[in-house]
Amino acid sequence: MGLTIHYTIGANTQEQVVKGLEELRSHCLKTGFEEVGKVHVKEITEKVLDKFWKMQEACSYPNNSVENLNKRDSLVRKMGFDTWELIMSRNNVGPMISLSLWPGEGCESCDIMFFTDDSYSFWKNKYIAKGFCKTEYAEEFEKCHLLVCDMLEKMDEMGFRVKVNDEGDYFKTKDIKSLARAKNISEDVIKSVAKQLRQAFGEEEIVTAVDIG
Asked: Which of 18, 37, 85, 94 could form a disulfide with 116 if both were Cys (CB 3.0 to 4.6 A apart)?
């Protein structure tokens, strides 16, 4: 739950992706992102994926303790990756080209990770980045939401193929009032669900992000 921006981005060549992400990085350094990472190019092999999924299986319930998960993450880093990168690869072998962006406190990171993905072959783009960023719980919600939308618009301007589903209804409308209405509706839904949970389980200690905010 919580307002989220979903995006799918397509590109034709590795050169387009690398140069485009470098340009995007320069743009985001100027627009107010809390953190802007570097552009990384890594090679995902079948051997890497095989090791990773064996570790994932070993950490499955009931062996998914924090200690075991931390050990997994440490081993994955020794292979030169983060756990989230290999999960997001969706088992696609080949180059991964990425840029990590963090809009601000309380907001999810907005990671752009390109893989060679045959499941989107109907797009006729070899490189596909698919992700999402939940902005609702950001301390500066409006700023963070608009930063993500601006970043995606910049990619569209640079020639990437960009498809966006903005639950805040801002990306297409550019209407701050529509964004505010969507946030209010989302908060009402979260409060309603929390109330039902309290009634169902008889617990008064269930706390939602809306309550904290």
From this structure: 94
